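User: Show me a protein chain along with its predicted structure.
Assistant: Here is one chain, sequence first, then structure tokens.
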Amino acid sequence: NRISSSLRLQSPIIEIPQNIQVVTAKLMQDQQIFDMLEGATRNVSGVTRVEHWDNYANINMRGSRVNPFRNGINVSTTWGPLTEDMSMVERIEFVKGPAGFMLSNGNASGLYNVVTKKPSGRTKGEATLTLGSFDLYRAALDFDGKLSKDGKLLYRINVMGQAKGSHRQFDYNNRYSIAPVLKYLIDDNTAITLEYTHQFSQVNMIGTNYAFSKKGYADLPKDFTTGEGNFDPTNMNDKSLLIVFDHKINDNWKFTGQGAYFNYTQVGMSMWPDAITGADENIMTRRVYISEDYAIAKTGQFYVNGEEKTGNVNHKILAGIDLSDKINYYDWVQSALLTDLDIYNPVYGTMNASNMPVFDRSVDIKVRGLQYKNAYNAFYVQDELGFLNNALRLTVAGRYTTLKTANVYSGDFKDSKFTPRLGLSWSINKNTSVYALRDESFNENYGADWEGKSFNPLTGTNYELGFKKDWMDGKWNSTFAVYQITNNNILTADLDPSHYPGGVIPANPFSRQSGQS
């Protein structure tokens, strides 16, 4: 019934004026969920995962894709991060709607925060071996304990290896991960945690799971594939380093500082059909594209949590700064045609050394790839005021964010905005509460118009009313919420003929800002 410290708040979930739902490692283990692509979202209402590639989880809430977080840090990249393996995950927290206390420059629909396993101070170990259909072989180890006799140096290490086939011919997903963590207790009030994660995933060509047909949904069988058995694999590496410094200033105040470095690479191919032709609309012209991505992200977060009292009013105070700098290089420009495929009577094995596509990677991705830079800095402060013995809570907060981006499509732009947050929560009893919330979001609006000009940032406002109930001493919880999200500067197709040569609108027109949604 509580959130992790990486979400920064000090109150139980039932007292927070926000719809937050938590999926624990124990639940995912009981359901045999091995990664974010395998059903973690089925435990959260209103959350769906759009079927996509085998690298990142495309998760949607409240009408749009939400940002992936890891330990309170936004880790979204062009095609990443690599979906987390559950062997290293303690819990997943789904935050619905904009959350100024986290990152109001995220999507107005919300975020999900993956919390990785940390040392517990207890000596324990666990080994898991899983065998399953479609040639699934998986082993995982989890060791937790002390490295020094005085109990000040703690460790946790999770290791996983997996080979997995598929119900689709030629498809596979071979993975391994290693996540060692060290925690040093300097004294009773201060600790330093150092965490490294390395995840590797290897799959057949990305996109072979898409079953395109002109005859509608579910026209092709579930085991249909556009892939071949002799394609070179697509390899993905997700590496990160996290350092956390915690210091208890006194009985009422605590300081937390953390810095993270993320490195994501993807090298392989992806497939899309050029056309479907033939008398029976059965011939697919297959085209493959180079699929390469290199992303680096550097993040710093520094904040204080405190509790004070003025008269009969309790104060839970949060204040801090967020810093982030990301750069992505990606190449999907090079492409080549494959042999045609009869989608109703597929014949595989037509690709060989003479007609297999070969892409030019002689030039480094940092030179030949498209580049996208994103950076922000933000300052925020929040006060949760408790009245009537904390039964009634008023949250007042503000965040000032500066966005800076640069890419080949939208050029450079910099913009700043103050986003206020106002929430009210009332505990009817210890297991029941109602809340009201107003919060805003502020994030980049990717792309450029027909003149090459950058778009104004995408802003959003969320109004929400909710009812929360805990059951069985908090083992079960439920939330009923009604909300309205308004987004500004939404992009739509530019259908003005005067913006195109000869007045002809192309199949892929420019975008324009259209107002609200």
